[in-house]
Amino acid sequence: MVLLFLAGVGVLALRHLRDSESLLVEGCTPWQTYKASLDNNTHKISYGSMDLQFNDRTEFPFFYRTVPNDYSQFSGMIQLLNFFRWNWVGILTSDDEGDQRGSEQLKKEIIRSGSCVAFLEAIPLALFLTDQQIARLDWIFDMIQKSLANVVIMYSTSSYLTSLICNKGHQKFKLAGKQWVLSTAVSSLNELHSIHIPRCVIFNGSLGFAIPKGEILGFKDFLYNIYPSTFPDPFIVQSLWREAFFCELPYRPLPTGFPECTGKERLSDFSVSEFDVDNFRLTYSIYLSVYAMAHALKNMFTVKHQHLEHRIEFLPWKLNQYIKRVRFKTPNGHEILFNENGEVPTTYDIINWVMFSGWAYTSINVGSFNPSAPKDQQLTMNQSAIFWNPHFKQTPRSVCSESCASGYRKVFDKQKPICCFDCFPCAEGEYSNRTDAENCLKCPEDQWPNEKKVECITRLIEFLSYTDPLGAIFTSTAIVFSIVNALVLSIFIKYRDTPLVKANNQELSYILLVFLMLSFLCSLMFIGYPGNVTCLIQQVAFGIIFTIVVSSVLAKTIIVLIAFNATKPRSKLSKWVGTRVSSYLLFLCSSGEVVICIIWLLISPPFPEYDTQSEPGKMILKCNEGSTIAFYSMIGYIGFLAFLSFIVAFLARNLPDSFNEAQHITFSMLVFCSVWISFIPAYLSAKGKYMVAVEIFAILASSAGLLGCIFIPKCYIILFRPDLNTRGHLIEKQNFNKPK
């Protein structure tokens, strides 16, 4: 209410000083009007204009202001949004050119800070709206009501916007369900105090930036003792009385329809909420502007007087240097000076507009913003002092997408703003221990994410142990087969003088049984903790033992062929009968495997390693073969000998021998080859400890096949059909099988 009055008094005072064309104190007029009033010969000290355009000292060298520019207000708003984590907001402005330019700049700053703007709409400021403008206004209000943005920034240099929204928007639209953030002009002008629309609760709980209050000594008493009759021209208080008391003074009245004032009206009749005379905002800024100009003029005239210039000629351009050097303190200790941008460094109050009485708004100071302070100390908020709109049960939230919890990451859509995203769980082996993580982190090799993927925990170390059910089964099986093998060997030793044992190369049978038993036992080396020594010898021992087993079978088969063909007339093989052919064959075939194993151990020996890929959350401790080529060369060599044994045994299956082993060897080699051919794809597809299990199974199955197919039938004859284990039966069988 008092702004116009104080501005008028201040400007009149200055104009009486000297030249009314060169000195002005200006406020928050629309941009077009304001810029048009500026020229290079006019010194202006604005008490309310915060437009960034006036920072250009080249175009506006004589422009000063007692308020900061809009950029500092934008910084404060962005910090306020970040403080409450509001990253999805709308902006409402007027159709004034300066307002639209400022709101566009505010939008850019908000986006640059990492937040997003849901909408930016301009409302016409005309007092009388056309039908088209009303329809546009209704559309804007409807869009605001439906928007997911719960926070709306009202940026304008016109305080009329609040009245317009209350008049047009509070009945049809539920705009009270939004959290409003008001710009400096709206909050500092205390326009909300003058809203007389019952139950217009749209701005209840809103926050606003405002120029800080300041005390003007003696001004309270001056205002309380104002009478229109005290002024030579009462027209200066005409508008003040009209706005305050809704009446017309008899001095040049306007046809407003208000009754004539009685003369008994006093400003002291108003409550503090309606007319706060203890602290002023823009009124105080006007006070500073007038005082700054007065100090500059005083300093200039003082200097001229000291130089004995009796005739003082006022040159506007000379005043500029004195305004730059203005420096004084207000009665409350506030130091006033202009910086390089022509601005008085100051702070912002953050106020909370609250409606307690049902129609009157009251402002509560809940924080401040100091643009000159260090970045992390600029904003201070007393959150407990804020009264939020009753629509919100707690601090309002305004986000396009809810935060991604720990264990999730944000996935952005290129078609949407950066604040709108989806939340996806972290991939296997990754975690995130903070909200709104854009990328998940990988755990170290020896760790794995917990179930919620919010932290890494130590992986479970696993290997095929003796206590593992699978390991226990294999261990029991190996021991049982070893015992059976030992029993068979003992039977052959006990009945070594019988024709059946003698007829099937007694020494090779002993060697074969001993190494079959070793093959059963060597499978135990694959069970238990894989250490350095274990990894070195398990594959080599398996390869050499199995090579000797298969070589023994091959030698037995070849000896059968030699013995049969040696009985033919003039046979050259007769000289090999009774010699150490079997021993030579066994040594020769085994030597190849030994050479492969030695080269393997020298070039790339096996070693223990942790497999972190096979099973999630576990580390499989296993033996790495070192050289895959050497490993499969060893297996391939055994396979070659087995296949050769199968071919030779197959060719000798029908030889006329009562105790011919060829048929049994053929079947045993068929079983052996089937097992190891199946082993290769199974081994390649298995992971972790199951690779070891596949190899153990192949060892046990193939060894059991050899034992069962070659020796079990002989043990049956020895133990249960001794009538077949005689020399007479052997001769009779030979004569029966001779070709006629």
Automatic annotation (TrEMBL):
It is a multi-pass membrane protein. It is found in: Cell membrane. Residues 470-734 form the G-protein coupled receptors family 3 profile domain. CDD domains: 7tmC_V2R_pheromone (cd15283). Its main location: membrane. The chain crosses the membrane at residues 470-495, 507-529, 541-564, 584-603, 629-652, 664-684, 690-712. GO terms for cellular component: plasma membrane. One of its GO terms (molecular function) is G protein-coupled receptor activity. Gene3D superfamilies: 3.40.50.2300, GPCR, family 3, nine cysteines domain (2.10.50.30). InterPro entries: ANF_lig-bd_rcpt (IPR001828), GPCR_3 (IPR000337), GPCR_3_9-Cys_dom (IPR011500), GPCR_3_9-Cys_sf (IPR038550), GPCR_3_C (IPR017978), GPCR_3_Ca_sens_rcpt-rel (IPR000068), GPCR_3_CS (IPR017979), GPCR_3_vmron_rcpt_2 (IPR004073). Keywords: Cell membrane, G-protein coupled receptor, Glycoprotein, Membrane, Receptor, Signal, Transducer, Transmembrane, Transmembrane helix. PANTHER family: CALCIUM-SENSING RECEPTOR-RELATED, VOMERONASAL TYPE-2 RECEPTOR 26-LIKE. Belongs to the G-protein coupled receptor 3 family. This is Vomeronasal type-2 receptor 26-like. It comes from Microcaecilia unicolor.
